[in-house]
Amino acid sequence: MKKTLLALSTGITISLVGCAQMTENNRDALYPRSGNTINVTDRNDLYNVQGLPNGTDSRMNNFGYVRHQKSPVAGDVNNYGVLPTLNRERVADLISKLCVQLPHVNDVATLVTDEEVLIAYDTDTKNRFETADQVKKTALSVVPRYYHVYVADDPRMMKEIERFGRLDSNSRNIDQIIDTTIKEMLKYPQGRKLSDGENANGEMINEINDHLDRDFNDGTPKR
């Protein structure tokens, strides 16, 4: 009887150790030892017979999925090092490339600041309002949602915004200088308002903290 109980106990212990080891191995497979991230494109599932994570044609078609978890140790903070930032030059390049593909838009100059996008373009359109709406919404599809977009269908404005190309957010009096240019751009068609709470440029209408934001055409009563 004792031998039977001893054998049974030993078997259970081995099974538990095996399960624990399997769980640990599964955890290692899901969580890289260097962090707490799960990235789908890092794994090749059985159905990916070609060895590509999410398709056989191009990685550019893959969906992106990443999950982050807090450290299980109380008070421990995940060290992510240097987080990615918005490259304004590349964003301006992308916006110009996309806008020049729109109908009746022949030449596009784009300036991206820390919170605004200024676009001057040459067009042969017969519907300036509609073209302005398309250009503006193309830019809004690229930048973070807090950005405001201002457009002008006047090639002469290209030189106006080009002079800001070598400046940055710390340049002296840069806000006042850009504000003057924006007010000039607002004389041109800006397209439709984005929603009942936002005007055509993405400015919140009559928002509570309006004094913290440099809006120009948001419907807030002038003081």
Automatic annotation (TrEMBL):
Which domain of life does the protein's organism represent?
Bacteria
Q: Which UniProt keywords apply?
A: Signal
Q: Keyword Signal on this protein?
A: yes
Note the InterPro entries from the entry.
Answer: Spore_lipoprot_YhcN/YlaJ-like
* Signal peptide bounds: 1-20
Pfam families, A to Z:
Spore_YhcN_YlaJ
- The protein in question is named Sporulation protein
Q: Which organism is it from?
A: Anoxybacteroides tepidamans
Q: What is the lineage of its organism?
A: Bacteria, Bacillati, Bacillota, Bacilli, Bacillales
